[in-house]
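Q: Start with the shorter request: fold the first protein.
A: Done. Sequence, then structure:
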Amino acid sequence: MSLINKLVWKLFSLKEREYLLSTLKAHEQGGIKKILNNRATFPEAFDDRKIILIEVPKAASSSLAAALYDGKRYGHLPLKYYETLSSQPLSIYFKIAFVRNPWARALSAYNYLRQGGAGKRDQKWAKLMNSFESFDHFVSTWLNEDNIYKQIHFVPQRKFLEDTLGMVNLDYIGRYENLEEGFNELKESLGLVVDLPKIKMGSSIDYKEIYTKHTREKVGYLYKQDIDEFGYEF
């Protein structure tokens, strides 16, 4: 991004900047914002550990980042963002991510935002989620191929894992459903002496009880890439 572009960016008001960013897909906004605000740096912790964790939303990424990087988090930024920033080929790093059952993740994201999300920045999303009578109403009315890219927690997981060529090129992809087992496997293979913080698992209700035939099929259609790529079933 050229200096001229960054200077032009500064000429816009905060609301104008927010509007321009909103025209991008949600998983692209964070990286572009950092670049335009001159805050885009390759994390030192990645170099220290030689590990890159891609923080997939609603897949225990906060706890994973806290364990790997001494409590630091770098946000839900896609692999291609780091690929662009790194002065070294990403092949020298061990690249990892954890993914989640797409049906369970969609319900978790809905409930998370409905309950307030990350606070002030998610107020409008909390208001929107609470405007629907139920999860079924939300899926039937709002969730579609365009809207899933407007909120980062609904963006397909594969989009976070793609490199600049659109390929998934990670060294390890674990599952949220087997989080502790997968993390212990990583610890052993990488020689890590770290502990995974206690995970807040949310509602104990089985997601399958919430879905109807219609919502199951619609979510399955919208997240088909994730389902196929990561081998999930309802």
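Q: Next, the second protein, separately.
A: Sequence, then structure:
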Amino acid sequence: MNDVELFAACLKDLLLENDVVVVPGLGSFMTRLMPASFSDLGRTINPPYRKLSFRAVESGDASAFTDRLAAALPEGTDAGLWLSSFVAGFKEALDRTKRVELPDLGAMRATAQNDYFFVASEDLDIFPEGMGLAPVTIKSSTLIEFSPAAEPEDAAAEPAIELELEPGADAELQPESEPQEEIEPAVIEVVESQESEDASKLVEEPAIELESEPAPADEPTPEVPATPAPEAPATPVPAAAPATRQSRRGMRWWAVLLIVLAVILLFLILSVIFKDQLPWGDAVDNIINHILYTEEELRILNS
């Protein structure tokens, strides 16, 4: 075990029993109990631990570290002289390299102005009471386990719905359309009864009818039977069929007309080409001349 390891071992043993350990000629190592806390993302619960820090001020009992060091050194070694020489070399190395490792604790570091501070290692363990405690990760599965808490509410709501439906259990056996059909004739019967009553009034009191005409309160009742329903089938779809038929017929007539014109044109072309061989070639020639030339031009050409 070298000097740095011996120094770090003595320091750790004292930190397990004390909150402040003073190293003569160097400073004070202080611990503080930190409670359990959540991580930055809130997904991990960190157990309680002791935080270690350093101050370049000797505040406390300086003899405790010397006594602990004397017990670890070989017999006959002056612990005070050994510690003073070690601290002098430790500071020199720290000023030169800006970092000196302390095994099982962390690292002592120095700034550009040679101000000392301590950086604890991630696996530092100087809290015996927290032995065995490990960080707890909150996973999505643990959160989902709380979701069944809403099931009793749904379960309580279901019997309420069943109680509401039980009185109307007979209605489920009949289709919805059947009560509507039964209601409509009932309304019609009421209308007919009202009309019969009005007719009886007209027979019994003809003079009062003229005076009671302005009271048409009972007349809107015939609007109850939905008579406009049969008008719904009058869709414009059937009307589209005659239009398509007429368009097809028109296209057929146009096709026939074009064919006739094409035949006539073909006949004229053939008559012009073979006019000398056809018996009516002279007639065709005269027709063409009358179309192309006037009478004066024909006289000039024939003269």
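Q: Describe the second briefly.
A: The longest strand covers residues 27-34. The beta strands are 20-23, 27-34, 37-38, 44-46, 49-55, 99-102, 106-110, 116-120, 136-137.
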